[in-house]
Design goal:
Number of helices: 2
Strand order of the largest sheet: 3-2-5-6-7-1-4
Order of helices and strands: HEEHEEEEE
């Protein structure tokens, strides 16, 4: 015979499982509005080792503080030919036709190694090719 306590515990477990499943389906890490893309190095070479910063920029905005809208950082170990990324798309940036996705690769000491950019088009993946920086 099942008692009231067992029934309530089973109902509680089912409710928690249902809530957890709904939350997992709406994970903030994977959103339909995210900008997805990949970074490669010019000539199909391996991306050098360093810190890769990828951000959304609108060059039409004069205020440098508001120019960059979204940002993500990744680490390049120096062996990959392609690094995939995902950037959140801010709601205020969707209307601008001048948006660019910019990628910067820096060494551990902060020196810029390579940079690249690509025009952003809503709904399409972005492909950024890094080009070596010459000082």
């Amino acid at each position: 015979m099942t008692d009231r306590r067992t029934v309530l515990m089973a109902a509680g477990v089912a409710a928690v499982a249902a809530a957890t499943g709904a939350a997992a389906a709406q994970s903030p890490d994977i959103r339909a509005t995210d900008i997805r893309g990949a970074v490669t190095f010019v000539g199909g070479k391996a991306i050098p080792e360093g810190h890769l910063e990828i951000y959304l920029e609108d060059p039409a905005i004069q205020d440098s503080g508001r120019r960059r809208a979204a940002k993500t950082s990744l680490k390049s170990e120096g062996g990959s030919k392609t690094i995939e990324f995902s950037l959140p798309l801010p709601a205020s940036s969707t209307a601008s036709p001048t948006l660019q996705v910019v990628a910067r690769l820096e060494r551990a000491d902060g020196w810029l190694v390579a940079r690249g950019s690509a025009q952003f088009e809503a709904g399409l993946p972005v492909h950024v090719t890094l080009k070596a920086v010459i000082y």
